[in-house]
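Long-time lurker. I teach an intro course on protein structure, and each term I like to show students one example going from raw sequence to a predicted 3D structure in C-alpha cell notation. This year I'd like something fresh instead of my usual example. Would anyone be willing to generate the C-alpha cells for the chain below so I can use it in lecture? Attribution to the forum is fine with me.
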Amino acid sequence: MQVILRQLNDIVIRRCESSDLISIMEINMKTLPEHYSDYFYESILSDMPESFLVAENGRVHVGYIMCKSEFGFSNFKKLGFVKKGHVVSVAVLDKFRGHGIGSALVEEAFKGVKDKNCDEMYLEVRCSNNDAVKLYERLGMSVMQRLSSYYRDGEDAYMMAIEF
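-- Reply from a regular --
Happy to contribute to a lecture. Here you go:
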C-alpha cells in the first residue's frame, strides 16, 4: 500500500517501491551525468527505504531522491564517529522544476534519515549548480568543503551537510 508523504497540487511524494526503479533510472539518465547499475538502485532501496522517495504526477514519475546510511567521521565534531545519511542522488525532470518538488523530496528524505537515527546528513553537489546549492542552504545545509575534481568530467563539488 502506497502512503502519501506529501502532496504539492498534482504531485505526490511517496516512498519508492521496486516497481518504480525503471522510471527512476530513466529520470537519472535524462537529468544527470552520473549513472548507476540496477543493483545499486536495489541496494539503496533495501538499505534505506525511508529516504528513497519518488515524486509522481498522476502515474508519471517526475523526480526522486535516494539516500543511504553509513558510519564515518562527523562533519561537525572534531573526533566524532557518527551514523550519517548520504544523499546519493536527487533529480527532477526539467519541465517540473521550480515548483518545490526538489525541496519537498529533500525535506521528506531528512525525515527518513532521522527515522534511521542518523546524526547528520551530507551530499555532494556540483559547484556550478547554483540553484541546488541555494536550495540546500535554504534547507539548513552548509558548505563544509570543496572537493577538487570530484566528478568524472573534472568539475569540483561542494560537500554540504546538516546536523540533526
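Some talking points for your students: The longest strand covers residues 60-73. Residues 17 and 149 are 34 Å apart (CA to CA).
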